[in-house]
Amino acid sequence: MFPSSTQKRHWMFRDDAELTNLRNAANKNYVEKFKDLLSDSAREVMLNADEERFLLRHYELQMRDLCRKFSPPMPRPVIGTAFHYFKRFYLNNSVMDYHPKEILVTCVYLACKVEEFNVSIIQFVANIKGDREKAAEIILNNELLLMEQIGYQLTIHNPFRPIEGFLLDIKVRSNLKNAEKLRGGIEELLDRLFLTDAYLLYSPSQIALAAILHSASKNQENLDSYVTQTLLASDARDKLSDLIEAVRKIRSFCKNMDTPPRDVVKQLEKRLELCRNEENNPDSQV
After folding, report:
1. What is the pLDDT of residues 176-228, one digit of tens each?
2. How many domains does the chain contain in total?
3. What is the largest CA-CA distance in the chain?
4. Same structural domain, 101 and 149
5. What is the pTM of this model?
6. Do 112 and 100 fall into the same domain?
7. Residue 21 covered by a domain
């Protein structure tokens, strides 16, 4: 189903450069639109594209924490879908136009509905600190905006189903005695990949295989013969080399993933409050 999906047609990109160009364009569009409408002090503190990306990393970590602590426990496909929505939204929008703290909770709420994790808005906002009535209003007001900005393309193909298929196949057609011990390492890698652009660049099956091979390596197991002689035995060598390179790049995404320093985040947030679009600020009289 993935090859014919809207995810494959519209939300898979060639490389990091294409993603960077989209984010740079979103930043530039906001700056061009508002440079003559903001005050001099606001124009001076407008964020560049790199600063936006840095700030988004901070809010991605907040979204991960919200999902991890959610009550009742949130299924993993909901988390994956929420991250997809969040990343899609900010490919074409600036954080100065729509604040991440408001889009974040909207993405998670919409993912709950799409993945049929049935929680009411009252149950949902019970997991959010602060003014819950205001949070519910923000989520419901932004829900249609979010759907519009991602083209109403709500179905997400996460790597969890391919993983189950691979594990079943490994149990049947490989020499690995206990495939279930791979789950811990698999989940660890997938959690880290949520914070990267891997899901916009590689298919769910490629990510699933990368997670399995990563976990096998951590468990000092070798699945090379399973991949080359069983899984891809009938495929051409060039296809095999392409897959190996994709797996290598996916695993490399998780390197150098430092947590943004809190003092830098605070500075960026202060600037954001000065230069954000007040028409999209629920606290603004505008």
Report:
1. 989 999 999 999 999 999 999 999 999 999 999 999 999 999 999 989 888 88
2. 2
3. 67
4. yes
5. 0.94
6. yes
7. yes
Phi, psi torsion values for 27, nearest 5 degrees? -65, -45
Interval 90-140: pLDDT, tens: 999 999 999 999 999 999 999 999 999 999 999 999 999 989 999 999 999
Domain extent at residue 79: 2-156+259-280
Token pair listed for 24: 């740079």
CATH number at residue 186: 1.10.472.10
Question: 210 to each of 34, 174, 206, how far by Cα in Å?
Answer: 43, 17, 6
Residue 176 lies in a domain: yes
Buried b (16+ CB within 10 A) or exposed e, 215-229: bbeeeebebeebbee
Asked if residue 285 is part of any domain, the answer here is no
User: Residues 37, 267: contact at Cβ < 8 Å?
Assistant: no
Q: State how far the Cα of 48 lies from the Cα of 96, in Å rounded to an integer.
A: 10
Q: Domain check: are 110 and 132 in the same one?
A: yes
158 in the Ramachandran plot: left (φ > 0), alpha (ψ -120 to 50) or beta? beta
